[in-house]
Amino acid sequence: MIEKKRVIIDTDTAGDDTIAILTALHYFQVEGITITGGNVQFDQQVENALYTIEVAGKGGQVPVYKGYERPLMGLGEKEHRTVEDVHGKDGMGDSFFDKAIQRPAEGHAVDFLIETVHKYPGDIHLIAIAPLTNIAMAIKKDPTIVPKIPHLYIMGGTNNALGNITPSAEYNFWVDPEAAKIVLHSAIPITMVGWEMCTEYSIMDDTDHEAIAALATKGSKFFTDINQVVMKFNKSVHKLNGTTHPDTLLAAVAAKEEIMTKSNLYHVDIELTGELTRGYSLVDINNRLERKKNVRVCEGIDRDAFEAMLFDVLRSIQ
Amino acid sequence: MIEKKRVIIDTDTAGDDTIAILTALHYFQVEGITITGGNVQFDQQVENALYTIEVAGKGGQVPVYKGYERPLMGLGEKEHRTVEDVHGKDGMGDSFFDKAIQRPAEGHAVDFLIETVHKYPGDIHLIAIAPLTNIAMAIKKDPTIVPKIPHLYIMGGTNNALGNITPSAEYNFWVDPEAAKIVLHSAIPITMVGWEMCTEYSIMDDTDHEAIAALATKGSKFFTDINQVVMKFNKSVHKLNGTTHPDTLLAAVAAKEEIMTKSNLYHVDIELTGELTRGYSLVDINNRLERKKNVRVCEGIDRDAFEAMLFDVLRSIQ
Amino acid sequence: MIEKKRVIIDTDTAGDDTIAILTALHYFQVEGITITGGNVQFDQQVENALYTIEVAGKGGQVPVYKGYERPLMGLGEKEHRTVEDVHGKDGMGDSFFDKAIQRPAEGHAVDFLIETVHKYPGDIHLIAIAPLTNIAMAIKKDPTIVPKIPHLYIMGGTNNALGNITPSAEYNFWVDPEAAKIVLHSAIPITMVGWEMCTEYSIMDDTDHEAIAALATKGSKFFTDINQVVMKFNKSVHKLNGTTHPDTLLAAVAAKEEIMTKSNLYHVDIELTGELTRGYSLVDINNRLERKKNVRVCEGIDRDAFEAMLFDVLRSIQ
Amino acid sequence: MIEKKRVIIDTDTAGDDTIAILTALHYFQVEGITITGGNVQFDQQVENALYTIEVAGKGGQVPVYKGYERPLMGLGEKEHRTVEDVHGKDGMGDSFFDKAIQRPAEGHAVDFLIETVHKYPGDIHLIAIAPLTNIAMAIKKDPTIVPKIPHLYIMGGTNNALGNITPSAEYNFWVDPEAAKIVLHSAIPITMVGWEMCTEYSIMDDTDHEAIAALATKGSKFFTDINQVVMKFNKSVHKLNGTTHPDTLLAAVAAKEEIMTKSNLYHVDIELTGELTRGYSLVDINNRLERKKNVRVCEGIDRDAFEAMLFDVLRSIQ
Ligand SMILES: [Ca+2]
Ligand SMILES: [Ca+2]
Ligand SMILES: [Ca+2]
Ligand SMILES: [Ca+2]
């Protein structure tokens, strides 16, 4: 039997984060889940992560650590907007699930990250499906972890395409652009799956949802529940006919890189100071700036393979 | 006989600007050509415009006015980069044509613009295929021209796509973003054709060039000459297999709006202060910012119709 | 008899601008007055300038040209704040004087500036007591005037001191920082008198006002009238016990440079992009940036000499 | 006997930091010293702090914790400039002292800060004489420490005066403006002593240095040694005739607030995005912005009292 790779998932658990967690729990040895400020109220996110572990039947087996509740430069109420309009008040499609039995682990997410990387040098892959605050802060607190992290998979940014939270920016990078900049400049090997990959390859329309419902598993039921609000939001705001699964797509790419049909190494950087472009991700496809190529950018996905993975995950959760 | 619409062309004449001028001379009553700083040395641009009029057989019939030689905030040598690498040293594919007989008109481009708009209120359409310095300065000097301009066609910016001079910006908007901002906020009705329209619909590959050469007119010979450098540049820098015709595409759209197969009214704005994004054009497709929709953005072109127009123009120049 | 120097005064005529105009009319051959957007409604400023000429007994002898009504990047209502709170609704201490007989000259201020500089090359000194929009636009429209301008005196900015309109910026530079930047980088020889010179050396307290009133001339009466509002404003906002005379101080320095007891040539630049510091004037006293020294900055005034000049001016207007 | 107040000193130990540490050790119960990136190479700073404790005769009694070696947004080599030109290659006036016996404590400065504040809630005063990276990071990692910190004394910024590292910024705020912003917005009660207080009240000229040398103590000898380089630097760069003691002045103010002859509560904020003004500290003396008054700004010092304190400290170190 092949041993599963060790990962830590950093998440602002709401909506698609949960399916990404289920996917990661399916394909990886998940050492822990760290929570960072983002989608909805922080403590709700923590509960969502704990509940999702329970859904996967792994309650008590995967520790959940609380991390930074707000972005680096989130001063007072400024610059941190939660998105209950996208994911529902509870971030779970207004499902208002019961509280999980498992409680958060003691200690700060950033210390857990640092210690675990040092404990398994070269073995801990990071799956980042949230603003990059926790990961940036780990790098800043202990830069010696950098060479010990083999790969970091990031859902975030756009590759010369329309953003989601503003026209110029994707939500995760927009919430904490300083953190994104720190991480992108860290020299950790990175794969980035941008928002446009999600709108092009991850959408599940009504037919897909019916097929998923037909699985009639605990996993498929959970999928249906948590996607109730985002379906409506996508139709009205993004003019997208279905639910979007950026975090699950990222987790799937991390699990099976071969579902990426196209990717290239580019220089990627983050705008901090623009009046209209804070959080914009520059992807220098034609190498006009002649700067260091620091990120492998996903540019194509085998949609069928991705869908098959998603179905496998949901089918397996009985 | 239908009377032709009156236009003024504002251009930094080099490369494709010349074919756009030929196109405009073919379809419009061109009241004058104004030159703004951009592609190559200013005086060379003036000569290129004069020569192009001569090629069209209209020497002495269309006045050429010198305007602003540098962008608004072009201080010293800062922030104005000419692009002889794209268009050749003379901006004409290194053709080094003889000087035209016609000389520039007396007076400043901006005063010609203001006077002509007042002379024919509601009749002067503007075709802008250069940094927007002249047009912005006309608006600032005399804001009363604004309601008298029925439409302004702009080649510039990108619609959520890769730029050409930097990853985040298209050349015309990047050279003078302050001017672009002034123009976009002016309340003049605007149609914008971005760089991504050009790369998607205007490219002429080797086969197209052969077909054009086969026309064996003075027009087709001129087309071949001035495109010698840009063909190589596009292959090596933009990974594009052919020559690009952004300005001609814009002139064609102005002449026959029906070749636009798709367009929408969006809020468009320009980033001035970004460290990575100066000159970036924000196009708010999903109306996330809920701001005034100020620009009709071209999103699709009937390529065959465009090509037919180009061939008509080149064929007609004997 | 010594011939007076030729000057053009650029002004947003309200409050102390009027006394500066009287001062300039006293000491110089004033070729014209150009009006730029600033203190109060533009047309009111034009009337204020015309009225002031009449007060000086020179009605019809000094042309007044209308220039730019708004700053370069003043888009819609953004970024141009008038200050009727400082100068009264009419900019004249709520005096609501009758309209002058003289009317504005035909033509745009910027063209008058350009033509006059070319007419008297090397002879036209500029006195700038307003946002620098007109002067910047003249330089941009015709850069060949630069070497023909012997000196430009500017009231604006601060020399490492508290601003007046914001903590970091003085009003004239803050209204149109882009214009200020264009002018400071133009290579015209410049003397700058900052706001802190005004608060340190130009304040007229109650005793001074009584002495001025005692002159009992038309000039002294006018001075008393137009200073009615600013006296209260200074006490409540700037904690200054008296009226401030930045523009008159500048005009006096231009007329008699020897009243400057201290001045040095420094590198001066303007911040455009700061979130808190737009319009801030950097004065590099210790040459830390090692950039071109472009401005002679006034650092000390002979207060008695200045006061004597003011009294001479007001006394002479019978 | 009155119990001494508990403090933690955060320092980038070089030059005057050492005398500030001696001052704090004299007047306070120093719970620990935390080191942050700044003046010179990080490990050198750690050694300088350890050595200084030894000079004070307290080797092994006061723990020294290593903190953040670089500012928050210090990416690669960008934006962190050490200043060996000011303080000598070793930050100790090129004295190259022997290594102290005491070694740094285990654990990260930020965790020591958090734990100690929680251990003595309401009792730990912070003395910050370095870039504010460590303190900002403590606040971000555990915002619950904020209400438990009674006061934070900061040497940093300027109050509408010339900076030292750039014309617009003081070194500590310039090195890590994001950290400064986080700290200033934290709601911790703050007293700020800016660079202009230092140049106005803390300078020790040749006569002062002779008087200090005449003390002929270990303390006075140390003072003489570490000030060898800065004396020359100040004369050539800042045109100051003597050594500057910003950090010692801050420590003295913290120890005896009554040496402040003038201070006021103002709104203070930090510029992050300016092209010329990154790290500029806005001090809104006239409350023009009508924002929250968050910092007590020192505006006057009893120089004699300060000097007496310094002499007491140096005399006491035998
Ligand atoms: Ca997420
Ligand atoms: Ca062009
Ligand atoms: Ca004025
Ligand atoms: Ca220090």
From TrEMBL, chains A, B, C, D:
Stretches assigned to the Inosine/uridine-preferring nucleoside hydrolase domain: 7-307
Database matches in PROSITE patterns: IUNH
EC number: 3.2.2.1, 3.2.2.8
Matching Pfam families: IU_nuc_hydro
Record has Coiled coil as a keyword: no
GO molecular function, one term: purine nucleosidase activity
Hydrolase in keyword set: yes
UniProt keyword terms in alphabetical order: Glycosidase, Hydrolase
Top EC category: hydrolase
InterPro entries: I/U_nuclsd_hydro_CS, Inosine/uridine_hydrolase_dom, IUN_hydrolase, Ribo_hydro-like
PANTHER family: SI:CH211-201H21.5, SI:CH211-201H21.5-RELATED
Protein name as catalogued: Purine nucleosidase
Organism of origin: Lederbergia lenta (Bacillus lentus)
Encoding gene per record: rihB_1
